[in-house]
Amino acid sequence: GAGVSQSPSNKVTEKGKDVELRCDPISGHTALYWYRQSLGQGLEFLIYFQGNSAPDKSGLPSDRFSAERTGGSVSTLTIQRTQQEDSAVYLCASSHGNSYEQYFGPGTRLTVT
Amino acid sequence: GENVEQHPSTLSVQEGDSAVIKCTYSDSASNYFPWYKQELGKGPQLIIDIRSNVGEKKDQRIAVTLNKTAKHFSLHITETQPEDSAVYFCAASPGGNNRLAFGKGNQVVVIP
Known about the structure:
Structural class of chain B: mainly beta
Shape of chain A: globular
Largest sheet of chain B: 6 strands, mixed
Radius of gyration of chain A: 13 Å
Low-confidence stretches of chain B: none
Distance between the termini of chain B: 40 Å
Number of strands of chain B: 11
Oligomer: heterodimer
Strand content of chain A: over 45%
Order of helices and strands of chain B: EEEEEEEEEEE
Number of helices of chain B: 0
Radius of gyration of chain B: 13 Å
């Protein structure tokens, strides 16, 4: 079946601009996660959605970062007033119910110039 | 919070030999330990995982072992092939919740 999809695959933006990154989870998966992967680093947790529960936003690095999930499916990660240190690959993952197994999308490579 | 460390950072092996990557974690409440393989330009792919109530799990050429007392777990790849070349990440689910804390990754290079 279809896996997690993310768009765009690459995004180049100027410092100070806002960007929106999109994630389509695997159909039927109620849990959705956003992670950030900086060059040569591991994955850093950003935010977690589970069904209709309030999201766990504890990983968001600043108030410039926000995410929403509409209708329990598609999620959008928004970064306002982008900075060069925001340059990274943003990865989305989903899982079924309360299952531990997380399945990742291909990521969006964000470059802030 | 949970701190996961991986060693070595880079590992080169001859094709056909075995590769072992070790991870340590800090939170004794962690109960789920997956391994992911990431190829260039792709997202991480779940290759094997283990729960805290199991000491070892095997799937064809890959296996994972867990030592809860020492708080470390290892990935074993036998009969390595060139397509095993990738970055491998270990992770732990801290505090028993579903968030994953990742190590920084190991670059494995299989030399034909």
